[in-house]
Amino acid sequence: MLKALIGKELKELTLIIEDGIVSKRLLNTDEAICRNIECIDLREKGIALPGFIDLHAHLRGLELSYKEDEESGTKAAARGGFTGIVDMPNTKPKIDNTKSLNLKIKSLYEKAYVNFGISVTIGKDVDDFIEMLKAKEVVSVGELFPEEHERLPEILKSFVANGIEKPIIIHLEHKDALGECGKGKRWACRPIESEMLALKEIGYMLESARIKAKLHITHVTNKYVYEMAKKYKFTTDTCPHYLYLSSEDEEKFGCLAKVNPPLRTRDIAKELIGLLPHFDAISTDHAPHSIEEKSLPFEKCPSGIASIEIAVPLMINLVNKGILNLEDLIQLLSMGPHKILNMKPGWGCFDIGCKANYTVVDLDKEWKIDSSKFYTKARFSPYDGLIIKGDVSSTIINGTVVYLDGEIIERPKISYLK
Prior knowledge:
The chain has 418 residues and is α/β, with parallel strands linked by helices. The chain has helices at residues 70-79, 98-111, 126-133, 152-162, 186-189, 192-209, 223-231, 241-244, 247-253, 266-275, 291-294, 311-320, 326-340, and strands at residues 2-6, 9-18, 21-26, 47-50, 52-57, 82-87, 115-120, 138-144, 168-170, 215-217, 235-238, 281-282, 358-368, 387-397, 400-404, 407-408. It is built from 13 helices and 16 strands.
């Protein structure tokens, strides 16, 4: 039993779910059903929304399991309200060949607590790359880093030759316009112009090749890149840290707030917040590292913020501030990612035949972020101590209540994003 947002109305529903699919729906609550089948009443836990999907997460795993693995990362995702995630390929070994891909697929099926898709990148063997793209678990290419941008025409030609329509996720910085500065100043050495130069070059590549492609520009840091990407008709996402944090936080927190592209000034962040409802998606760019790595001197510590279990609460907090509404939240975290990934209809809806993936949000809960309670292995955060209003109270994956009131309840029967 749920209190669900249907259109703009809140309705109490009783859903019968079989094999992860809604088999019956009653537009009321019928407690008599519970005499014959197992049921759970979530009406008082908050509002059920179509299950959220993270387009861009780094689960690490394999040889980088000391940073994060498929179990810890997806438990963190479930706690954060995500019913599906896309795992990026820059792990060790890199997911640029079928052997590594098969290792990653096996590990996810064995350990994951949420539905998943895998993003791959191109290696030395183009034929092997095409073979990877045929795997049902592979939903995208990328994130393509600056040094890989020059291979984009090759990737596009292989897409056309093989009828592939999966999105390509682009990390937007230019390899010839990257430097390093001290903490609080990285925005000057990895400037907005670096992102814009890369975007112009990619646009020129597409125009020269006369190829239409589904390019997605991830973790946009500023309004100028957003506006330019829209002119090219590329889809876009941004991340909570580009909205909540700034170069001032990088100076204050050092390595804990070091990320690529870098945090920009407070004024740039404010401009980005104003555009938020117009983005296609929000992603986390969840990038966990060990505390030993993040404790290195600033010039040596790796970039990345682990935020997969607080990204949704941070967005709900913006709903409470009047910056977003619930329809925006659904678009940015569920329907937008669903469309970008070319998924089939039926994800997270409440009708018969829908895939029962739901995120239940409590709009009224006020709480303080405490990274020591995280499920991720990266239990440290520049958000520690921040008081926000709004949280995830439950995450339902393929009909199974996986997360409820601060606890992981059970591992569901998972599937690839489809």
